[in-house]
Q: What sequence folds into this?
């Protein structure tokens, strides 16, 4: 376990003893007034503890070693991908959250004490009375995340990214300043984009000259190529499944082109079984595609065993360059359904909500009725978030016990999340909503916490993201591009112009980063394991309905093989299984 944890309150001595039980390599410091304890969990490049005569600061994250701020200015002008806690001479706890993949959680006790931790699992171990917060369960089971500042547990909140808190006072952390593109000349933008990408990767590499790259498609291949161009030693890693349908294409071609060593990371159902039950011990949020997080965790462990301390990925490229074909297709379908009469829309959605439709069509019925019902909402709200995993109809089929009282309706939350986005077009709205579940950040945070190996992606760095935010929309997705096109047109043009990758890599068909034969595993060799794990859900459930979710369906097979880029239709099973893990005893 790698991370940080802190306590401030009347029972600091007891808190320090509890913290020491979390990890054998825990390092803790207590303030002079014996009121505050800050500690780092684990050792290595992702944690840092600094002490002075008057205070201390603890950092966790992929950029922890590069932080130079003290407790009075915690995280000011430090890199984004880090969270921190500390205390100054007055002994008061200071907590700060960067704007990257790592999150900081705060729990205020009934006796006025405060806990802060980068790990929900660690927090549950030192505060065992923490209970699952079901007040946002309907939204969680609908969209696969809990809206911030709420977390999975009662009285535990997520610190807002980019803020620092001392007592009851919260202020913004001073961020590094970066410039957005201001040009409208395509050639000029291409050259500036090239310069910005190279500079971002060089900055993230820092003093490291040996890197592992998690190699998927075009995005990560580009990162590997830039690192090789900088003269760094690069080794690539790619998931390998028994069924070659799910294996990334042209991996050997790229390795030969760049003159680098490639490693395969073998993946089968046993890896899912070994990590899904304890999902909450590693990750801070459930999700509809937990295999996506487990993929990276499994690869990071192999990379760590090979002696690497730094991983590069292509995460975030599709998000900033509007490259997800499925998201663009969803935006196009949403626009098309606006022409349907409301009466017909309600009739069709109602028909698709029946138990017969659920049993025979499964994911296809849920997707279709979600799309139809979005058409009945305010235009901005309806085009924003993806279709629900479990909507009201599906939850009625699923839960047999009394539904928990919800703090807000699902519609109220959706309306709040879409506020202020009216200026965005449908494609931009869909991409914005797609990123809110934070699954890529959860993936990175969990893998870093579990292995202590830092991860970085230039496409998630503020410098590159800020620059790209100023590129005109039509240079990312031209007016004539189809909804199923790969997008990121100006990035592709830049790669061709500067000869960074061969055409066979640039032009290869898009493959989903979450592609995996997991649906077949759920339906077959993992079926009994899944049903057993679901016994830990915080509600009783309809066994016949859940067994129906796991049953093969012709409609889902069609969708999986002909429509879905990720060949995946069992998001419901992934979400329920990962949610159940958060209701388990953390010591189990």
A:
């Amino acid at each position: 376990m790698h991370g940080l944890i802190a306590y401030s309150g009347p029972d600091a001595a007891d808190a320090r003893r509890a913290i020491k039980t979390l990890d054998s390599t825990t390092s803790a410091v207590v303030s002079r007034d014996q009121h505050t304890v800050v500690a780092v969990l684990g050792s290595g490049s992702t944690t840092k503890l600094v002490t002075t005569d008057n205070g201390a600061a603890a950092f966790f994250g992929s950029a922890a070693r590069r932080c130079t701020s003290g407790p009075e200015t915690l995280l000011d002008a430090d890199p984004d991908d880090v969270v921190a806690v500390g205390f100054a001479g007055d002994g008061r706890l200071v907590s700060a959250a960067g704007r990257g993949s790592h999150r900081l959680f705060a729990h205020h006790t009934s006796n006025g004490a405060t806990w802060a931790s980068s790990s929900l699992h660690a927090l549950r171990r030192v505060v065992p009375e923490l209970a699952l917060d079901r007040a946002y369960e309907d939204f969680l089971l609908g969209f696969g995340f809990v809206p911030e500042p709420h977390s999975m547990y009662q009285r535990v909140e997520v610190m807002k990214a980019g803020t620092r808190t001392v007592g009851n006072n919260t202020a913004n952390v001073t961020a590094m300043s970066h410039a957005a593109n201001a040009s409208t000349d395509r050639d000029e933008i291409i050259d500036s984009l090239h310069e910005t990408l190279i500079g971002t990767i060089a900055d993230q590499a820092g003093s490291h000259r040996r890197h592992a790259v998690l190699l998927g498609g075009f995005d990560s291949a580009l990162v590997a190529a830039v690192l090789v161009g900088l003269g760094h030693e690069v080794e690539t890693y790619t998931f390998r499944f028994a069924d070659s349908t799910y294996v990334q294409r042209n991996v050997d071609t790229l390795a030969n082109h760049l003159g680098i060593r490639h490693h395969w990371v073998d993946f089968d159902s046993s890896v899912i079984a070994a990590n899904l039950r304890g999902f909450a011990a590693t990750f801070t949020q459930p999700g509809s595609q937990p295999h996506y997080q487990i993929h990276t965790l499994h690869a990071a462990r192999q990379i760590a065993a090979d002696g690497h301390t730094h991983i590069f990925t292509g995460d975030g490229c599709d998000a900033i360059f509007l490259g997800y074909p499925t998201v663009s297709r969803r935006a196009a379908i949403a626009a098309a359904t606006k022409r349907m009469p409301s009466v017909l829309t309600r009739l069709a959605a109602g028909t698709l909500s029946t138990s017969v439709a659920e049993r025979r069509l499964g994911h296809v019925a849920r997707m279709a009725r979600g799309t139809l019902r979005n058409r009945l909402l305010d235009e901005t709200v309806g085009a924003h978030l993806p279709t629900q995993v479990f909507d009201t109809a599906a939850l009625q089929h699923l839960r047999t016990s009394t539904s928990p009282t919800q703090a807000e309706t699902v519609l109220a939350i959706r309306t709040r999340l879409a506020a202020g986005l009216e200026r965005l077009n449908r494609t931009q709205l869909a991409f914005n909503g797609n990123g809110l579940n934070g699954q890529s950040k959860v993936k990175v945070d969990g893998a870093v916490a579990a292995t202590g190996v830092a991860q970085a992606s230039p496409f998630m760095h503020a410098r590159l993201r800020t620059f790209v935010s100023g590129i005109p929309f039509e240079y990312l997705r031209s007016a004539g591009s189809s909804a199923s096109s790969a997008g990121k047109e100006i990035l592709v043009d830049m790669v061709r112009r500067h000869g960074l990758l061969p055409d066979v890599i640039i032009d290869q068909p898009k493959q989903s980063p979450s592609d995996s034969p997991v649906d077949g595993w759920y339906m077959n060799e993992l079926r009994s394991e899944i049903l057993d794990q679901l016994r830990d859900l915080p509600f009783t459930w309809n066994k016949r309905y859940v067994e129906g979710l796991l049953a093969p369906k012709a409609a889902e097979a069609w969708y999986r093989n002909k429509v879905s880029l990720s060949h995946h239709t069992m998001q419901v099973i992934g979400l329920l299984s990962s949610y159940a893990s958060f209701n388990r005893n953390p010591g189990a």
